[in-house]
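Researcher: Here's my situation. A collaborator sent me these components and asked whether they could plausibly form a single complex. I don't have experimental data yet, so a predicted model of the whole assembly would be a useful starting point for our discussion.
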Amino acid sequence: MKLAEIAGILDAKIVCGKQPADDEIKFGFSSDLMSDVLRLDAENMLLITGLANLQTIRTAEMADIKYIVFARNKKATAEILKLARENEMVIIETPFSLFKASGLLFHAGLKPIY
Amino acid sequence: MSFNIEGGNFSRAGYASSEIKKLLKQLNVDPKTIKSIVISLYEAEVNIVAHAYRGIMEVEIDDKKITTRLKDEGPGIPDIGMAMQEGFSTAGKRVREMGFGAGMGLPNIKKNTDEMNIVSTVGVGTELIMVNYF
Protein backbone atom coordinates (compact mmCIF):
# COMPACT_ATOMS: atom_id res chain seq x y z
CA MET A 1 0.00 0.00 0.00
CA LYS A 2 1.25 3.48 -0.78
CA LEU A 3 1.58 6.17 1.82
CA ALA A 4 -0.75 8.55 -0.01
CA GLU A 5 -3.48 5.90 0.05
CA ILE A 6 -2.96 5.31 3.78
CA ALA A 7 -3.07 9.04 4.48
CA GLY A 8 -6.26 9.34 2.42
CA ILE A 9 -8.01 6.49 4.26
CA LEU A 10 -7.03 7.91 7.65
CA ASP A 11 -7.95 11.49 6.79
CA ALA A 12 -4.40 12.10 7.93
CA LYS A 13 -1.60 14.54 7.56
CA ILE A 14 1.94 13.45 6.67
CA VAL A 15 3.96 15.67 9.00
CA CYS A 16 7.42 14.39 8.21
CA GLY A 17 9.24 12.36 5.57
CA LYS A 18 8.30 10.78 2.30
CA GLN A 19 8.03 7.28 0.94
CA PRO A 20 10.72 6.03 -1.45
CA ALA A 21 9.06 5.50 -4.86
CA ASP A 22 9.44 1.72 -4.98
CA ASP A 23 8.60 1.03 -1.32
CA GLU A 24 5.35 -0.73 -0.65
CA ILE A 25 3.93 -0.86 2.89
CA LYS A 26 2.66 -4.40 3.43
CA PHE A 27 2.05 -4.87 7.14
CA GLY A 28 0.46 -3.00 9.98
CA PHE A 29 0.83 -3.35 13.75
CA SER A 30 -1.11 -1.36 16.33
CA SER A 31 0.24 -0.94 19.83
CA ASP A 32 0.89 1.56 22.58
CA LEU A 33 3.30 -0.88 24.17
CA MET A 34 6.81 -0.45 22.79
CA SER A 35 7.94 -3.68 24.49
CA ASP A 36 5.69 -5.57 22.07
CA VAL A 37 6.88 -3.56 19.08
CA LEU A 38 10.46 -4.59 19.92
CA ARG A 39 9.50 -8.24 19.58
CA LEU A 40 8.29 -8.02 15.99
CA ASP A 41 10.06 -9.45 13.03
CA ALA A 42 8.72 -7.68 9.96
CA GLU A 43 9.81 -5.38 7.20
CA ASN A 44 7.84 -2.69 5.37
CA MET A 45 5.68 -2.21 8.39
CA LEU A 46 3.43 0.60 9.50
CA LEU A 47 3.26 1.18 13.26
CA ILE A 48 -0.06 2.63 14.42
CA THR A 49 0.18 3.99 17.94
CA GLY A 50 -1.35 6.42 20.37
CA LEU A 51 1.97 6.78 22.17
CA ALA A 52 3.55 9.94 20.84
CA ASN A 53 6.87 10.35 22.62
CA LEU A 54 10.58 10.08 21.91
CA GLN A 55 10.68 6.43 22.89
CA THR A 56 8.21 5.63 20.11
CA ILE A 57 10.77 6.95 17.63
CA ARG A 58 13.70 5.27 19.38
CA THR A 59 11.81 1.97 19.35
CA ALA A 60 11.05 2.36 15.64
CA GLU A 61 14.71 3.19 15.01
CA MET A 62 15.92 -0.01 16.71
CA ALA A 63 13.22 -2.15 15.06
CA ASP A 64 13.86 -0.70 11.57
CA ILE A 65 10.35 0.72 11.30
CA LYS A 66 10.10 3.63 8.87
CA TYR A 67 6.38 4.43 8.96
CA ILE A 68 4.51 5.61 12.04
CA VAL A 69 0.90 6.72 12.43
CA PHE A 70 -0.02 8.70 15.53
CA ALA A 71 -3.68 7.94 16.23
CA ARG A 72 -6.22 9.62 18.56
CA ASN A 73 -5.13 13.02 17.28
CA LYS A 74 -1.76 12.81 19.03
CA LYS A 75 0.74 15.31 17.71
CA ALA A 76 4.43 14.91 17.07
CA THR A 77 6.48 17.44 19.04
CA ALA A 78 9.44 19.28 17.49
CA GLU A 79 11.76 16.91 19.38
CA ILE A 80 9.96 13.87 17.94
CA LEU A 81 10.09 15.29 14.41
CA LYS A 82 13.79 16.04 14.69
CA LEU A 83 14.65 12.47 15.70
CA ALA A 84 12.29 11.06 13.05
CA ARG A 85 13.96 13.16 10.34
CA GLU A 86 17.40 12.03 11.45
CA ASN A 87 16.22 8.47 10.93
CA GLU A 88 14.43 9.21 7.64
CA MET A 89 11.06 8.16 9.05
CA VAL A 90 7.59 9.07 7.92
CA ILE A 91 5.19 10.38 10.56
CA ILE A 92 1.45 10.57 9.91
CA GLU A 93 -1.13 12.11 12.26
CA THR A 94 -4.72 10.91 12.17
CA PRO A 95 -7.70 12.13 14.21
CA PHE A 96 -9.07 8.55 14.28
CA SER A 97 -8.82 6.15 17.21
CA LEU A 98 -6.37 3.27 17.11
CA PHE A 99 -9.30 0.91 16.54
CA LYS A 100 -10.81 2.89 13.70
CA ALA A 101 -7.46 3.55 11.98
CA SER A 102 -6.50 -0.13 12.23
CA GLY A 103 -9.90 -1.33 11.05
CA LEU A 104 -9.95 0.93 8.01
CA LEU A 105 -6.42 -0.04 6.94
CA PHE A 106 -7.08 -3.75 7.49
CA HIS A 107 -10.22 -3.48 5.39
CA ALA A 108 -8.24 -1.71 2.67
CA GLY A 109 -5.75 -4.60 2.50
CA LEU A 110 -2.94 -3.81 4.93
CA LYS A 111 -1.86 -7.18 6.35
CA PRO A 112 -1.48 -8.12 10.03
CA ILE A 113 1.91 -9.44 11.14
CA TYR A 114 0.17 -12.25 13.03
CA MET B 1 33.70 2.60 23.70
CA SER B 2 31.57 3.52 26.68
CA PHE B 3 28.46 5.53 27.44
CA ASN B 4 27.06 6.85 30.68
CA ILE B 5 23.37 6.16 31.20
CA GLU B 6 21.34 8.34 33.50
CA GLY B 7 18.58 6.70 35.56
CA GLY B 8 15.15 8.23 35.00
CA ASN B 9 16.11 10.29 31.96
CA PHE B 10 13.79 8.97 29.27
CA SER B 11 14.59 11.70 26.77
CA ARG B 12 18.15 10.29 26.52
CA ALA B 13 17.15 6.61 26.59
CA GLY B 14 18.26 5.01 23.35
CA TYR B 15 21.06 7.45 22.58
CA ALA B 16 23.85 4.94 23.24
CA SER B 17 22.08 2.16 21.31
CA SER B 18 21.56 4.55 18.41
CA GLU B 19 25.27 5.41 18.29
CA ILE B 20 26.18 1.69 18.24
CA LYS B 21 23.66 1.10 15.46
CA LYS B 22 25.33 3.77 13.32
CA LEU B 23 28.73 2.22 13.96
CA LEU B 24 27.57 -1.31 13.07
CA LYS B 25 26.08 0.02 9.83
CA GLN B 26 29.41 1.62 8.97
CA LEU B 27 31.09 -1.72 9.62
CA ASN B 28 28.69 -3.36 7.12
CA VAL B 29 27.33 -5.86 9.62
CA ASP B 30 24.34 -7.83 8.28
CA PRO B 31 21.12 -5.79 8.87
CA LYS B 32 19.29 -8.64 10.65
CA THR B 33 22.22 -9.07 13.03
CA ILE B 34 22.29 -5.31 13.63
CA LYS B 35 18.60 -5.36 14.48
CA SER B 36 19.03 -8.15 17.06
CA ILE B 37 22.01 -6.37 18.61
CA VAL B 38 20.43 -2.94 18.86
CA ILE B 39 17.13 -4.28 20.16
CA SER B 40 18.93 -6.03 23.02
CA LEU B 41 21.09 -2.95 23.64
CA TYR B 42 18.07 -0.70 23.70
CA GLU B 43 16.10 -3.00 26.03
CA ALA B 44 19.10 -3.05 28.36
CA GLU B 45 19.54 0.72 28.15
CA VAL B 46 15.85 1.29 28.90
CA ASN B 47 16.13 -1.10 31.88
CA ILE B 48 18.84 1.09 33.41
CA VAL B 49 16.87 4.29 32.76
CA ALA B 50 13.72 2.66 34.17
CA HIS B 51 15.16 0.97 37.25
CA ALA B 52 18.64 2.17 38.18
CA TYR B 53 20.19 5.42 39.42
CA ARG B 54 22.97 5.39 36.87
CA GLY B 55 24.87 3.00 34.72
CA ILE B 56 27.55 2.52 32.15
CA MET B 57 27.49 0.70 28.81
CA GLU B 58 30.83 -0.60 27.57
CA VAL B 59 31.01 -1.96 24.06
CA GLU B 60 33.81 -3.98 22.50
CA ILE B 61 33.75 -4.93 18.84
CA ASP B 62 36.16 -7.23 17.02
CA ASP B 63 35.89 -8.96 13.65
CA LYS B 64 33.79 -11.82 15.02
CA LYS B 65 31.56 -10.40 17.73
CA ILE B 66 30.21 -7.55 19.80
CA THR B 67 30.40 -7.75 23.57
CA THR B 68 28.45 -5.29 25.71
CA ARG B 69 28.76 -4.92 29.44
CA LEU B 70 26.06 -2.88 31.20
CA LYS B 71 26.74 -2.13 34.80
CA ASP B 72 24.39 -0.12 36.95
CA GLU B 73 24.08 1.25 40.43
CA GLY B 74 20.54 0.54 41.47
CA PRO B 75 18.16 -1.53 43.54
CA GLY B 76 19.30 -4.81 41.96
CA ILE B 77 17.11 -7.76 41.03
CA PRO B 78 16.10 -9.99 43.98
CA ASP B 79 15.07 -12.94 41.80
CA ILE B 80 16.58 -13.12 38.32
CA GLY B 81 14.53 -16.24 37.50
CA MET B 82 11.34 -14.23 38.05
CA ALA B 83 12.67 -11.26 36.06
CA MET B 84 13.39 -13.58 33.13
CA GLN B 85 9.75 -14.62 32.98
CA GLU B 86 7.61 -12.86 30.39
CA GLY B 87 5.12 -10.53 32.00
CA PHE B 88 6.91 -10.10 35.32
CA SER B 89 7.72 -6.44 35.98
CA THR B 90 8.36 -4.12 38.88
CA ALA B 91 8.26 -1.00 36.69
CA GLY B 92 6.35 2.02 37.92
CA LYS B 93 3.68 4.16 36.30
CA ARG B 94 6.15 6.52 34.64
CA VAL B 95 7.95 3.68 32.88
CA ARG B 96 4.63 2.27 31.67
CA GLU B 97 3.62 5.68 30.35
CA MET B 98 6.72 5.56 28.15
CA GLY B 99 5.51 2.31 26.57
CA PHE B 100 7.59 -0.09 28.64
CA GLY B 101 7.35 -2.05 31.87
CA ALA B 102 5.48 -5.02 30.47
CA GLY B 103 8.00 -7.55 31.72
CA MET B 104 9.31 -8.33 28.26
CA GLY B 105 12.74 -6.71 28.41
CA LEU B 106 15.01 -9.45 29.77
CA PRO B 107 13.23 -12.26 27.84
CA ASN B 108 13.59 -10.19 24.67
CA ILE B 109 17.31 -9.64 25.37
CA LYS B 110 17.72 -13.40 25.72
CA LYS B 111 15.91 -13.92 22.42
CA ASN B 112 18.14 -11.43 20.59
CA THR B 113 21.58 -12.33 21.95
CA ASP B 114 23.85 -15.33 21.44
CA GLU B 115 25.13 -15.18 25.01
CA MET B 116 23.65 -13.38 27.98
CA ASN B 117 24.80 -13.32 31.56
CA ILE B 118 23.27 -11.34 34.39
CA VAL B 119 24.49 -10.90 37.93
CA SER B 120 22.72 -8.75 40.47
CA THR B 121 23.14 -7.74 44.09
CA VAL B 122 20.15 -6.28 45.88
CA GLY B 123 20.84 -2.74 47.04
CA VAL B 124 24.00 -2.47 44.93
CA GLY B 125 23.22 -2.99 41.26
CA THR B 126 23.12 -5.23 38.25
CA GLU B 127 25.64 -6.29 35.64
CA LEU B 128 24.52 -7.64 32.29
CA ILE B 129 26.87 -9.04 29.67
CA MET B 130 25.63 -9.69 26.14
CA VAL B 131 27.47 -11.21 23.20
CA ASN B 132 26.39 -11.37 19.55
CA TYR B 133 28.45 -13.03 16.83
CA PHE B 134 28.51 -11.51 13.36
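Model: Some features of this prediction you could bring to your collaborator: Chain A has one domain: 3-112. Chain A has a mean pLDDT of 95.
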